[in-house]
Each structure stands twice: as structure tokens, then as C-alpha cells.
Amino acid sequence: MTDASTLSSRALACGMHISDNYIIDHVIGEGGFGITYCCTHVSNNEKVAIKEYFPGALAYRMDDTQVLPYAHQEALFEQGRRHFQTEASILAAFPLLSHIVNIKDILETNGTVYLVMEYIEGITLKQYISDNGPLAFDEFIELLYPVMQDLIQIHDKGLLHRDISPDNLILGTDNQLHLIDFGSASLKSTAANDHKTVILKSGYAPPEQYLPTGKLGAWTDVYGICATIYYTITGFPPTDALERLQGATLPSLTDHAPIRSWQAEVIYHGLQLASADRYQSIDALYQALRIPPLTVTQEHVSQTIRYASMDGKTILPTSIPALPESHSESRPTIPSIVLVIAALLILILYCSLGISGYPVPFWPDRLVLSRPTTTDTPTSPSIGQTTEATTQSTSVQTTETMHSNATSQTTTSDTTTETRNATTEATTKSSTSQKKSSDPNDNFITLPEDDSYESFTD
User: Do 126 and 204 meet the contact criterion of CB atoms below 8 Å apart?
Assistant: First the structure.
């Protein structure tokens, strides 16, 4: 809050009315884009904060009330005024965001536009740090998370804040952090193309905000958030972006604040000078701050997991901090599923070979499906069996006779007669041996009957 004795000559005087409905109590803050007043509603005595569109580089005040553009600045003044009103209308569509200041009304008077916002009791983050010193990283991040979640919804509608800094974060009497002052806000659709008034705070603005045609986006607010975190945990703002472009260094976070190395890396990533090298959305920054990397350093392990020593051996504690929710579930991967299917197919093939009688290692004999064996019976073989045996025996003797004839090269009728006698004798012996055999699986060569045999040998 600014004391009345130190008010800028640009500000409206205390006690003046704005649009006949609000009385100015005092000036809350003043910047390059406008002036914010604490006012009281005439009818119900409700306190509100009113932001006046008053870009100091483009306009001046006349008769202590009217805001007029400088010569040759009319177009830029009107363009900014139109954006100011349009973007306020977009912000007014989010009345339920509890950590982003709510827009109650939009007024047009005194040649400019006024945003009527809810008044949040408390002090700015900058004033709190100045009075109490830096905050611990984990403590401040817990306060900042709800603000980032609301800001994600604002960005989804295409609206950028462009002025995130400790001056615009109020630590309310409800012990919650609130983002205020959307007077510098800009639409994404216009931020990259239109000529814009340069609105920034040294140390909290990225390089693209120094250029009227700089390409702004969610990454611009990412820089502002990370710069605010830097200030909150160290007590001083980061080095100005233009100075860093000229070679100035950014003081190490780990040398000035109790912060883990992976958390410091997240802040450095959000403070990169090139916009493409930063997180491209508030959601990406939120996830990076919230979830430690899977490959944490030994330093992080020692700070999150305590070990107990027993009998000279190091053991893990009974309770280990759980991994973040996104990493807590283990799901089977495609290679593991393929290996399981391959193992099942090999097992099925192994069982099939073993059951069919193929000799496989470690297969029990009792599981082989063997053919039924024929037991000896006292009954004599059937006529069909005797005939088959006779024929098969005759075929064997015929083969032997052919071999004998080829050796001696003598073919006579006496030899034929002797061969027939030998065949008859072999047939008798074969029939006798057939009775004694119990193996039905013996293989024999079958040749034609006797008539065919005779013609073959002739």
C-alpha cells in the first residue's frame, strides 16, 4: 500500500469518485501499465480493488481526472485500451477461481477503462519476504501450487498474465496465495503479432518482453513464476534478462538456499533465456516441480529415505516413501508378454513330443502313450495269418534264389524244383515260428502269389 503523502502525480486523489459508485480510499500500487486503488462501494460499503488503464509511456492526466494519449500515440493507446477491456471480459468468466483475483465489473469513464476486482486482505509476497526473510522451497511451493492450477485454466482460454512477480502475489489473511493485477494481461492470439507496450519488471521478465514484437506465450509466465520462486527462497531477484544476455551470470540457487539439486534444475530450466528452452506450459512446470525424476541423485535419496543400522549392516526402513502416483503402477511390457507366450508354446511342444513317445529329456516313461502289446494265446493262428506268413516267407526265399542265380548264372529246371522244395520247407518253418512270435509289429516284404513268382523267375 502506498502512503497518501507519496502518491504519484498521475494517481487520482483520495475521496474522488469513480463512475459515481466507488470512492477512492487509497492507492494500492502503481506500475507502467496502470494504477490500482482501494475503493469502497457507495451503496453496500464493500471494499474492492480498481485497476485504472493508464500506460505512462503513452498517456498523461488532464484536469486531475481525464486520461489522454500523447500526440502520435493515439493508435497504440486505443489498441491497448481495447485489449485491456477484452481481456478483462475473459477473466470475468472465471468467478470460481479461488486463487486468481475475480473481476466484478468493467467501467468506462475519464477517457479510460477501470477493472473492478475483489479486494484481498493481506500483504504482497514481496513485503512479506522483506519483513520475514526467505521461505523454504517446499513451504512456498505448497502455497504456489493452487495458483498454478488456476493459471492453467486462464491459459487454456488464451489469456496471459505477463506480470507475475512478488508484487502481484498477495498472501491473504486466509493463509492462501492469490494472483492479482491482470491489468497487464494479454491474449495469446494478439501477443505474437501486434505491436505492444513494453510492460515488465526487471528480473521477472524474460527477453521476449523487452521487444514490442516479441513472441509471448505460456513460457513467458513460466519465466515469471520461476523468477518469483527464485526471489522467495533467496531473498533477491534473479539477474536481469538483458544483463544475462550480455554475459552476466545467475547466482547459484544451491549456494543461497536449502534446495535439492533436481529442484534447482527445474528453476534453471524455467529461467532459460531462449523461450524454446523453457517449459512450454504451466502444467509442464507444475509436473516438474511436483514429481521428482526417476533417476534421483544420492543427495535426494539421502534426504527422502532414512536408513537404519543394525549389527553393522545397513537395512531399509519398514516404511519407504511411495513413488508419485504416475509411477506407482507397474504394467507388463510388450517384450515380457512375448517371452511368456514363447515359453508357453515351448512347453506345449515339449509335452506333445513326450506324450507321442519321442525321446525328450526328463520325460517319465509312464506318461508315454505306448501301443497295446499282444499277449501269447494258446490258440493256433488263423488261416489268413498263415497265408500271409507263407507269402512273406516265399518272398524272402525268392530274393535269396535270385541272388544265387545271379552268382552261378545257371538256370535249370532241377534248380527250380529244389527251390520249390526249399520254399515249402521254409513255409512250414515260418508257420511254426509264427506261433511262437508275440510281436505283431514285425515288418516283412510282400511279393505276389506263387504263380506270379514262377513267371518272375522264369
Answer: no
67 plus 82 within the same structural domain: yes
Separation of alpha carbons 150 and 161, rounded Å: 12
**179 and 157, same structural domain?**
yes
Same domain, 160 and 270: yes
Instruction: Check: pTM over 0.90? Answer yes or no.
Output: no
In one letter, which amino acid is 399?
T
What pLDDT was estimated at residue 162?
87
* pLDDT tens digits, 222-253: 999 999 999 999 999 999 999 999 999 999 99
Name 103's bridge partners. Answer: 117
- Residue 426: all three cell numbers together: 521254409
Contact 122, 170 (CB under 8 A): yes
Q: Can you say whether the dihedral through the CA atoms of 90, 93, 95, 96 is positive or negative?
A: negative
Structural domain range at position 42: 4-118
Task: Indicate the number of domains in the chain.
Answer: 2
Candidates 294, 177, 162; CA nearest to 227 is 162
Are residue 143 and residue 107 in the same domain, yes or no? Answer: no
In CATH, what number is assigned to the domain containing residue 199? 1.10.510.10
Cα(157)–Cα(431) distance, integer angstroms: 104
One domain, residues 147 and 294? yes
Domain assignment present for 89: yes
Least confident among 80-94, 115-129, 377-391:
377-391
Asked if residue 143 has pLDDT above 50, the reply is yes
**251: nearest Cα among 263, 264, 239, 265:** 239
